[in-house]
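Feature request disguised as a bug report, sorry. It would help if multi-protein outputs had a clear separator. Right now it looks like this:
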Amino acid sequence: MTVEGGRARKRHARVAVSRLTVTIVLANMIGLVILLLGSFALTQYRDGLVQAKLEGVRAQAQIIADVLAQVAIDETSCQPVDEADIARQGEETSLCALALSQTDVREVFNRVWDSFEGRVRIFNAPQTFDDPPVSNASILLIEDVVLREDRIVAETLPPIETEQTQSFFDAEGFWHDFLDYFSKGYRNQAAHRSLEAELNEALSSSPFAEDRGAASVRINEEGELVVSVTVPIRRVQAIYGMVTAESGGIDSLVEAARFAILPFFGLGVAAAILSSLLLTAMIAQPIRQLAIAADKVREGIAAAGRARIPDFTNRKDEIGELSGSLKSMTQAIYARIDAIESFAADVAHELKNPLTSIRSASETLEIAKTPEQQAKLMSVIQKDVARMDRLITDISNASRLDAELARETREAVDLNRLIKDIISLYKELKNDENAPVTFNDPIQAVYVLGNPSALGQVVRNLIDNALSFCPADGSVRVYLEAPTQRASTARIIVDDDGPGIPPDTLESIFKRFYTKRAAGAAFGNNSGLGLAISRQIVNAHGGRIVAENRLDDPGDPTGKRLGARFIIELPSE
């Protein structure tokens, strides 16, 4: 992210809508919307309602058919026909003309059907043997009545002169269209069913079936979805007519049931929004605060300032872990910045000392009169140049040490063999001015996981440090201790016979550019970085390095010092 982006995020932090908040809200709403649409699309309720309607209408149609079969059949409409008349008049002569008495049908409806509701139509039986028998139901229609419970509905109508305005968005009309979308397929199937097909099916139905007649779901003349049952009016096996009973209101009942879901959906939406806001307060806002604090840290580093990371570690969750990690990272960055600043100041100071010495010697060299004085000044200059060379080399090694340790891979290192190779090199370069270096190696091999070159540098730094303090008649001794059951660390010990270390500087000697030496020790032969580099390498390997004195009486810390001892502990696993 650019600096401008970070500033924009901070400027709008209090008013901007969090994308994570929107994502949480949408994620919670998707499930509710799917559930709502699924409840609209499911057909179990509608099919159950249609089946219940059909059962009621069928019972009503069968009762009407049975009553009409008893009281409304026109007995005179069926007369026996002589075989001679049939032969004389041809095939067009019917054996029997079956029909209902229209007067009796109307009398029945006028007297007994106040308790029934729905539309009832009475048809005569077809008098032809065409296929299909009924091609136009209106020709056979005797009676068409709508039966309903008597009731008075009062409704206040608007004034005639008042013009009804319709809003651009008709919510009720939109809702009806929305619900009709889920019933489109069902209505299309119902639209392909006709009254004539239902009548023909009823004519061909068995009189011994449990559910007499034919049933269907159709669209009536007004475009309303209705359930319809047609039952033949039979006496014995003869069909005199048919009763068709219809009942509507399916759409309104299904729509009412769907409307009943909306309050629960509204409660679900409210709960989803509240839970989203809660999740936003618990997740999105802390993350946003951490992001803003991270931007401030970046800008603070550029402006040499300090920024604080919000502390959410008391939450004991992933946000708390992220907060703790960012806080630790920020502290490490600030510590590294402080170390770099301190290192730069120390480097400038350490380089300035030999340069000052060289400048003084060169200025004095011009006025030196004797060759002895000139040779002495040249020796000082040469030593300071060598000191600067060592300083620059050690500074270069120290500055790239972290990157090298992070980049290089670890491998199994045989400490026994590593130390032997180093000691053999010191034995080859032995001179009378330096103390001898010995190694007491264990019988078995000791392995650790690490960088062999870096660990070798640590051993060489400790031996060089010990040789710089140890007199020529003394010795430097290196020990290697294998891990035990009680201690799972390998130990490297370096002892010398020098003056030892002042107790108050046992920790300070590991600081960078620490060059305080005992009285009589040569000055300028060390850069003060060897022990600091050694501790840095050992810490990177998960171990530790400490310094202590070898005492004449180990129980008396103020007793005579026999020399110094450095102990390195490295994990063996």
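(second protein starts here, but nothing in the output says so)
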Amino acid sequence: MTIIPLNSYAAGQWVAPSGKTSELRSAVDGRPVAEIGTQLDFAAMADFARSVGGPALRALTFHERAAKLKELAKYLNERRDALYELSYDTGATKPDSMIDIDGGIGTLFAYSSKGRRELPDDVVYVDGGVEQLGRTGAFVGQHVATSLTGVAVHINAFNFPVWGMLEKLAPTLLAGVPAIVKPASATAWLAEAAFRMIVESGLLPEGAVQFIAGHTGDLLDRLGAQDVVSFTGSAATAGMLRANANLLANATRFVAEQDSLNATILGPDAAPGTAEFDAFVREVHREMTAKAGQKCTAIRRILVPNAHRAAVIEAISDKLAKTVVGDPRAETTRMGALASLAQRDDVLEKAEIIASEAQRVFGGQEDFSPHGVDPEMGAFVPPMLFACDDPDSADKVHSVEAFGPVSTVMGWRDLDHAVALANRGAGSLVASVFTHDPEVARAVVLASGAWHGRLYFANRDTGREATGHGSPLPHLVHGGPGRAGGGEELGGIRGVMHYMQRTAVQASPDLLAGITRRYVRGASTIAGDKHPFRMRFGELEIGQTLETTEREVTLDDIEHFAAFTGDTFYAHMDEDAARANPFFPGRVAHGYLILSFAAGLFVDPAPGPVLANYGLDSLRFLKPVSPGDRIRVRLTAKQKTRRNDEYGEVRWDVSVTNQDDEEVAAYELLTMNAM
């Protein structure tokens, strides 16, 4: 029997267990699998992160950090089989482990992609547009975000030792902030194995990540205003951590994602026999049995029309009866063990509390015998389904969570009643609704959106693409109000912003352009004899400008464009009708005719570094162009973003003006330019 000593990784060194240690046992058969407990210098760890890891990460651009996330994801992906094997002793089946391990690796890939596509190849993030703060444009403002100079402390839950770690690390490292990872002890051997792979990859700068196998000691007392605590777990533990006097005194950022009493609603149109009813039953069964119900997003309250209550109970019970619970290594097993004997005892205790207000209609310990294991040694509990006859007067079913395969069916009278019951959870990570009626979906959002971090709607149309009630995605916010913690994780670039400081910058256009490395209207420009389209990506400077000659727009041009395109809208063709429109002085040129003429004025036709024109952003037609008006174009290189070794994206500010220097159209042109 091999017992793994779980090492911490502090200040660039692996530290073996020492002092008071404890054994961690397999959730399947109770044998000791790991030893945990290390005495660490937490002040030194925090200092090492701030003085070594932080500067190294901040020296990299967002794109360089994103590239490291991608390489790290690939490295872990090639080694995940070893993690699957370790995961079995956490009680997880192979599909459970894929949610945890593959899901975590997928989150790294997703943030790498988002970092390259949505963030600049720079260290400053520009948030929103430029605000003109004065009459002439000589004084402007803009929000920017820069990396915090502290350390992020990640305190993770036991149920997803790999995903829970990686989904926090991805946005943190992309933001340029080092992290200290503290996994929950019950499944820490799996987290330590994945973390060891991260270190062995050599892909991250020294000091970017550290690892605590054991307690956090006085670490929270070492944090300040530039640091972040990101916590996942119970509301009770979150409350204790939030109350730390040092965190309060320094206004240290605290992000909490807490367990919640998530609900699912069977819509009024989803009667037995409909695709929505069948999908609802499948989803409830999956959420009760995946990870043995140990998901912070799992369905705890099943809200159904009173008329379908018996049918729902029967359908769910039938599926639960066919679910094999036992050794997670066995191919026939569909539900494994809870993470520990302590967790098993807690779930059974909470189930008894729920039983004080609800009748158990399926499951129980009486005749339960998990397949292929000793029921006394492993942390196995059967799936248990309860039914509450009076959810309005009940309290425990809306406030007590058995963090395992336990759910309660409750009947509702009408949709308002269903939403009110869902909101009784006092804030959740997710609520789901199974309906094919758009009006039902809208009503739920309006009445319940404020109480839930995510609303998941499923029906016959979402089909196989639907990811499920209990699956947080990197692209969307994971978190919720009230009991769910009041925080947010993930959500694409929103998650990165938790580790950055948004700052309002007020300055002249030249200074703001220098800060953001983006051209700002009113800033100095660069003119030259060489057409900007003849310059390679590396040659082109921000502010490089071309001013074109004029072109007159004639009535013949307008009529030819109308005949050629088929766009014969009256404002272009009927003088009297156009004059009757308060926006037009008479017949006017098509907006897209103006764009076409503008391109003809500024495009250099010969082959050169511009490989492709692939889009327009922020297009606005600002003033009508009448026959006889003369237009010209001012083209300015606004922003450059390197894409690979062959080409980069150039964003151009395009301003089209008339003979009176009035702007008639404005937009941003995107081109790909050879390196």
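Even a blank line would do. Unrelated, but nice: The chain has a mean pLDDT of 92.
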